[in-house]
Amino acid sequence: MLASGALALACIDAAMAQSQNYPVRPIRVVVPYTPGGITDVVTRIVAQEVAKAVGQNVLVDNRPGANSILGAELVAKATPDGYTLASVIAAHAANQTLYPKLPYDSIKSFAPVSLLVTAPLIVTANNNLAAKDAKELVALAKAKPGALSFGSSGIGAAAHLTTELLMLTTGIKLNHVPYKGTAPATQALVSNEIQILMDTPSSMMPHVRGGRIKAIGMASEKRIASAADIPTLIEAGVNVTGGTWVGWLAPAGAPQAAVERIGNEIQTAFKRADIRERFVQMGIDPVGSSLAEFDEFLRAEVAKWAKVIKEAGVKIEG
Predict the structure, then answer these.
(1) Sheet harboring 243-251: ordered strands across?
(2) 13: left (phi over 0), alpha (psi -120 to 50) or beta
(3) Confidence grade of residue 9 (pLDDT, cut at 50, 70, 90)
């Protein structure tokens, strides 16, 4: 009895010592998407800063598939020692409602680390579309119900669900054509296979500036610094806002000291003007939140998208 008790205490002491010395080896951050997208880019920038601060490599591991479920499941079921983290976006919150048989709980299976950034979405259109702003787009869609199609990077993506919110708010009907990522959806917009596409400014503005597509309006409360010439939807009388975000999560049960260490280093990095400006120039709002703030934010996102998904009747095909 005494021996087993002593062994248990020794294990606890060892775990506490390991947490206090954390990290003693490289940290892996799983990105449930392919390289090059907003999740990957933001994660790599932050990973570099955290690595310098903690003195260990922070390795980015891209594990795309199943609308981010494969990567998130890998982290949810990983050993909760603080050495495996997930970098997720708004789809992570939507998946809780979209997938009745999700192999984890979007909130309960994870420990929040930090909300890194938020990013508004921009509504763009094919150059041939007879609308130059949100007011004209809504009028055109109402005049031709179901005649216009919108694309997305996939069912349940923030861009898809924000367009559903646009339809719910304005009463218009658009046909949804999901693609496997922003790149093929953008190509479909340029070639007029679809007429409307909502995505992040960092993805869409290069095509707008290049004259291949046109901007209809920013789905944000106010104009953004990197595209100050693009009006908001609200300015055109369409009261719709929407965006995506990137945040880091650890498996539930990860040592509090480890989670706090990473979270604190992220907050410190985001206080630097050069880091903040780097994101602003990409059309991304730097946040670097506390653990508690991200927990509250994530819960609100799950509830928000659950409402939209249910009201719009969004279903996963197949």
Answers:
(1) 58-62, 27-31, 84-88, 243-251, 110-120, 285-286
(2) alpha
(3) very low
